[in-house]
Amino acid sequence: xxxxxxxxxxxxxxxxxxxxxxxxxxxxxxxxxxxxxxxxxxxxxxxxxxxxxxxxxxxxxxxxxxxxxxxxxxxxxxxxxxxxxxxxxxxx
Amino acid sequence: xxxxxxxxxxxxxxxxxxxxxxxxxxxxxxxxxxxxxxxxxxxxxxxxxxxxxxxxxxxxxxxxxxxxxxxxxxxxxxxxxxxxxxxxxxxxxxxxxxxxxxxxxxxxxxxxxxxxxxxxxxxxxxxxxxxxxxxxxxxxxxxxxxxxxxx
Lengths: 92, 151
Hints:
The structure holds 2 protein chains of 2 kinds. Chain A is mainly alpha-helical. Chain A has a domain at about 25-75. Chain A has helices spanning about 5-10, 15-20, 25-45, 50-75. The radius of gyration of chain A is 18 Å and the shape is globular. Chain A starts with a helix and ends in a 19-residue tail after the last helix. Chain B is an all-alpha fold. Chain B has 2 domains: about 5-40; about 65-145, no CATH class. Chain B has 4 helices and no strands. In chain B, helix 1 (about 5-15) packs antiparallel against helix 2. The longest helix of chain B has 23 residues, at about 130-150.
C-alpha cells in the first residue's frame, strides 16, 4: 500500500481527493487542522497542561515538513558562492 | 524519518481529551497520522530499507560503531551484535543473536571474536567468556601470591 492509499484510508477518499489538489501543501494543511481540533478539545475541557504538551508535540511533527520546505524553497540555480551579504541566497 | 515515533506521544496525550470532545480527539489523531503519510506521498522514491535486495538501501547502524575510513571490509560497520555495550566488553551473549538487519551486506562472521579477529588477531583474546575466565584466574593468582608473600 503506497502513501497515497494510506492517506485515503485515514482521511477517506472524498476528503483525500479534496485536499490533494494542485498547489495544496497537504502536510501543513493536516497540521493546521490538527491544531484546530486541539483548540476545540481545549475549549471542551482538555486540561491546559496536556493541551500545551500536545501542541508542543504537534509542533515537532510539523517542523519536519516545514524544514524540508525551507530547504527546497531555495532554488539551486539561484545559489551563489559570491553572495556574502545574502541578497541572492537569502531565505525566502 | 519515523513519524510514528513522533505521533505516538501525541496520540497518548489525547487520552486527556474528555469524552465530550471525542470528535476532536478523533480528528487530532487522524490528522497527526496524515501528516506523515502526506510527507511520504510527496517524497522522492529512492533509498529505502523495505527492499532487502536493494544494494543502495539505507541500513540502520549504531553510530558508536561507525568507522568508515578505517573499516574497509565492513567489520566494524556491520550490524549491531552486542546490545548496549561494544562487543569487546560485553560479558554476555547478545540477545540480538540471530537477528541482523545487515546480514546480506555484512562480512560473514560467526561470533564477535571472529569479527574482531579480522581487525587484529590479538583483539580476539578479548572475547567475553574468555576475558571473564582470564580475569578470575588473574585475581586468584594475585590473591594467592599475596598470601604467599605474607606467610
